[in-house]
């Protein structure tokens, strides 16, 4: 097998991993699981969907809208200096969703997860002003860490998926190893919220 074929195969695999496990998808699956655990019944799925909508789906929709306007070439927004608007949309969307959760007496666990993601986003925004940290790695890590806290430590095995996300970001040339590790570490830190609010 030629080097060119191997490189093309690696790129295709990395693209598949990064697309399948992108923040929108990770948050949809993760927030549904967190909501279910927080409520203990099917109503948690509704709260989880609200969380996924505000933390992942609305921001992803905003990115697609800006792409359609020609603001960015793709959803990855490779240029760090153009990412600030996305973070502000995420902060506003998660904030609005959190208010709805408070007013609707949502289970504490899903609200804590939302607030943890909000704080994580502030961290991502702050770091991004000087250095290109990996958002995809942060979200993948946060989802796994939060699921491990609310469900079972066995969920930590899913960090294999976070490692896959980190690898894909590096393989595609979007980030360095340090940027993905920093993102994953920040994502894992979301579980600290449960020490105070869980």
Question: What is the C-alpha radius of gyration, as a whole number of Å?
Answer: 17 Å
Strand content: under 5%
* Total DSSP helices: 9
How far do the termini sit from each other? 52 Å
Number of strands: 0
Unreliable residue stretches: none
Order of helices and strands: HHHHHHHHH
Q: How much helix, percentage-wise, in residues?
A: over 70%
Give the mean pLDDT: 92
Mass-distribution shape? globular
Major β-sheet annotation = none
Structural class given helices, strands, pairing?
mainly alpha
Brief summary:
The protein is an all-alpha fold. The chain has helices spanning 3-20, 23-39, 43-68, 84-103, 108-128, 135-150, 159-171, 177-188, 192-197. The longest helix has 26 residues, at 43-68.
Structure write-up:
This protein is mainly alpha-helical and 198 residues long. It is 75% helix and 0% strand. It contains nine helices and no strands. It is globular, with a radius of gyration of 17 Å. The mean pLDDT is 92.
Main attributes of the structure:
mainly alpha, 9 helices, 75% helix, 198 residues
């Amino acid at each position: 097998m030629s080097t060119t074929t191997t490189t093309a195969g690696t790129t295709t695999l990395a693209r598949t991993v990064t697309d399948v496990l992108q923040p929108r998808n990770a948050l949809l699956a993760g927030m549904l699981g967190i909501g279910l655990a927080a409520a203990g019944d099917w109503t948690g799925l509704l709260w989880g969907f609200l969380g996924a909508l505000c933390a992942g789906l609305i921001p992803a929709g905003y990115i697609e809208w800006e792409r359609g306007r020609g603001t960015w070439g793709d959803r990855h927004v490779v240029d760090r200096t153009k990412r600030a608007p996305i973070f502000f949309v995420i902060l506003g969307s998660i904030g609005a969703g959190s208010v709805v959760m408070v007013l609707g007496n949502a289970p504490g666990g899903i609200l804590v997860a939302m607030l943890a993601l909000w704080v994580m986003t502030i961290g991502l925004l702050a770091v991004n002003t000087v250095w290109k940290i990996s958002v995809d790695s942060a979200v993948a890590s946060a989802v796994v860490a939060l699921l491990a806290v609310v469900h079972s430590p066995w969920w930590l095995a899913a960090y294999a998926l976070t490692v896959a996300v980190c690898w894909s970001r590096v393989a595609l040339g979007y980030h360095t190893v340090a940027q993905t590790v920093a993102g994953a570490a920040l994502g894992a830190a979301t579980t600290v919220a449960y020490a105070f609010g869980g």
